[in-house]
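User: Assemble these into one structure.

Assistant: Restating your components, then the assembled model:
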Amino acid sequence: DVKVTQSSRYLVKRTGEKVFLECVQDMDHENMFWYRQDPGLGLRLIYFSYDVKMKEKGDIPEGYSVSREKKERFSLILESASTNQTSMYLCASSLSFLWGKNTEAFFGQGTRLTVV
Amino acid sequence: SQQGEEDPQALSIQEGENATMNCSYKTSINNLQWYRQNSGRGLVHLILIRSNEREKHSGRLRVTLDTSKKSSSLLITASRAADTASYFCATDAYTGNQFYFGTGTSLTVIP
């Protein structure tokens, strides 16, 4: 079974802290994604990566950065956590988006982050 | 944003009834997918339909795609209480390397 594992299910951090959310996948997928999910807003893409050391901004990258040093690991970094970053964070991975491939996304279980 | 939209936002039905939810999107696509999310969990892939397909079945799920209208529907037949979840559509466009998710339909199946 494909597995995408996020390091924490629940996290509570203080305003101003630097926060690391880790995600590991075991399927040798090229693409990895970080989303945040808020009620009524659906899933919004923060950053994605299509290869090691490669990254692209999604719809809401402000206040976040990412790191992909190894193919299986994609980290989301909140440089200075703020209360408006309290949210559910979802990591996903998929094969490369080449024509003809079934680009199913596999999700981790989510991290519920609360910034106080 | 190229985010899609599901309709309705919320749906409540009795066990055994059919549930239909719709998705509209904005760009030309390669594939359209449907995902389910149980409360507080990650999303789970249900079914994928390619842009050159019009209908697809998987168990109790039936998906249709109308690329001329940029819309899709998901039908769950003979619903069960365990189908209670949020359902999202997602598209991957010809350009870029992203999934575009809708805002989701919250389905409640009453036993």
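Chain A has no helices and eleven strands.
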